[in-house]
Amino acid sequence: MHPTNIRVSIVQLRNNIIAIKKHIKSHVKICLPVKANAYGHGLIGVAQHTYDLVDYFAVSCLDEGYLLRKNSITKPILVFGAFDEDQIIDLILNNLEITISSLYKAQLVSIFAEKLGKKCKIHIKIDTGMRRVGLRPESLDALINFVKTSQFIELVGVYSHFASSDDIATDFTLEQINVFDGVVKKLKLEYPNLIVHLANSGGVCYYPTSHYDMVRPGLLSYGYFPSVIVEHGVLSEIKPCFELITKVVYFKTVFKDNGISYNHTYMTSSQTRIATIPIGYGDGYRRALSNKAVVLIRGNYYPVVGSICMDLSMIDLGCNGESYVGDEVVLIGRQEDLEIKLSDLASLMETIVYEVLVGFNERIPRIYITEKKNYVWTNL
Ligand SMILES: *Cc1c(COP(=O)(O)O)cnc(C)c1O
Questions:
Q1: Ligand 1 centroid from CA 218, angstroms
Q2: Backbone dihedral region of 200: left (phi > 0), alpha (psi from -120 to 50 degrees) or beta?
Q3: Which atom of ligand 1 is nearest to the CA of 203?
Q4: DSSP 289
Q5: CA–CA separation, 75 vs 54, rounded Å?
Q6: pLDDT per position as a tens digit, 146-205
Q7: Quick one: which of 108, 195, 299, 320 has the fewest CB in 10 Å?
Q8: From CA 47, how far away is CA 184, in angstroms rounded?
Q9: pLDDT the model gives residue 329
Q10: What are phi and psi of 187, to 5 degrees?
């Protein structure tokens, strides 16, 4: 086993989803976004360990949906992303539910589905203010008229996406809910079984009128709040389930006034002990953390010094710091009563938790810690 690994607490991940389920009304379905390797937590591991709790999985592209199907995930899978004409056959053959944002794409899908003699399930996406992909509300009638004529398209859902649901100080989210509401009220009369969905994590936390028939919380399911931490009620049980751990693989004494790592961006001010750990920006431990991050060894914080390399990083233990090869090093998570939060690392890098999480790549094995404490690991 590679000494660097990501530990995902399945107990906590499941508790997060259970808390969200308690927070939403009982008829509201839950769709778990597992795009971008399940926000770094591992696509297959997360899907397998949450399978019984969710109604839907969501991915961003064909390849992610294909991997889920390959690994026997038979639940409905919605593909959020825009697709290319070349991908339509495989989307249909893998029984993936496609996002439709234009009449043109609906017509293409219908043609391919007819060729395959297979119905294709679609969700129509409305642009209510994100201005990314999505149909303008005024174009909906034409699309619906086409969908009615196609025997190879099955309309199962309609959705939209928030632009700033993490910002509770603006009214823009309420405006988006308003626009969406106008569109879906009409549709629901004609299609009473339609799954109407809008809420991402921000919607789930801060906008109860956005829950409709299904919610799609990604970040929140993995244990992070989009902005304001909800400290009361059932959502207050939500916590991160992700830890990044490695081991000391080498250490040496370095004399005063010596430079450490590439370009000597750190100079020792006195004789000190430098530990080396087997993780670097090639794993997603970003170079922007050089001379900024700290790690936990033997219950103490120590700084990451010098430039983070592709595969290795250096830690300054100080002249009296004790550590030996094989010691556990916590880069994200808890050791004894101290903690390094992923959100603090994100702040150090002036970015968001999302970007840090998805940056940890498949070189780092994921270990799933279940209630029975049996560790299962996979790189996906
Ligand atoms: C990624 C995504 C989500 C989940 O967003 P979070 O902010 O992680 O909750 C929901 N809906 C769509 C369309 C997405 O692309």
A1: 6
A2: beta
A3: 9
A4: G
A5: 9
A6: 999 999 999 999 999 999 999 988 899 999 999 999 999 989 999 999 999 999 999 999
A7: 320
A8: 30
A9: 98
A10: -60, -40
Give the span between the Cα atoms of 136 and 128, in whole angstroms: 7
Ligand 1 atom closest to 220 (CA): 9
CB atoms within 10 A of CB 271: 13
Q: Which of 61, 64, 80, 195 to mutate to test the pocket of ligand 1 (most atoms within 8 A of CB)?
A: 80
Report which ligand 1 atom has the smallest distance to the Cα of 125: 13
- Closest C-alpha to ligand 1, atom 14: 80
Output the residue whose Cα is nearest ligand 1's atom 15.
80
> What is the rounded CA–CA span in Å between residue 202 and residue 234?
15
Query: Which pLDDT score is estimated for 216?
Result: 98
Which amino acid, 306? Answer: G
Which one-letter DSSP state was computed for residue 233?
Answer: S
CA torsion through residues 257, 259, 263, 265, sign: negative
107 alpha carbon to ligand 1 midpoint, in Å?
26
Residue of 127, 216, 238, 358 to mutate, ligand 1, most atoms within 8 A of C-beta: 216
Q: Phi, psi at residue 223, to the nearest 5°? A: 105, 10
State the DSSP H helix or E strand holding residue 195, giving kind and residue range, or none if neither: strand 195-197
Which atom of ligand 1 is least distant from the CA of 165? Answer: 7
Q: Catalytic amino acids?
A: 35, 262
CA of 267 to the centre of ligand 1 (A): 43
d(CA 320, CA 251): 13
What is the C-alpha to C-alpha distance for residues 335 and 354, in angstroms, rounded to an integer? Answer: 23
Cα separation of 363 and 132, whole Å?
32
Query: What span, in angstroms and rounded, lies between the C-alpha atoms of 163 and 129?
Result: 7
In the structure, which protein residues have their CB atom closer than 6 angstroms to any atom of ligand 1? 33, 35, 80, 161, 200-201, 216-220
Q: How confident is the model at residue 377 (pLDDT cuts 50, 70, 90)?
A: low
**Kind of pairing, strands 5-9 and 366-369?**
parallel
Let me know: does 40 contact 360? Beta carbons within 8 Å: yes
Q: Which residue in 337, 299, 341, 342 sits closest to 321, CA to CA?
A: 299
pLDDT reported for residue 131:
94
Average pLDDT of the segment spanning 110-120: 98
Q: Mapping DSSP to helix (H, G, I), strand (E, B) and coil, where does residue 77 land? A: strand
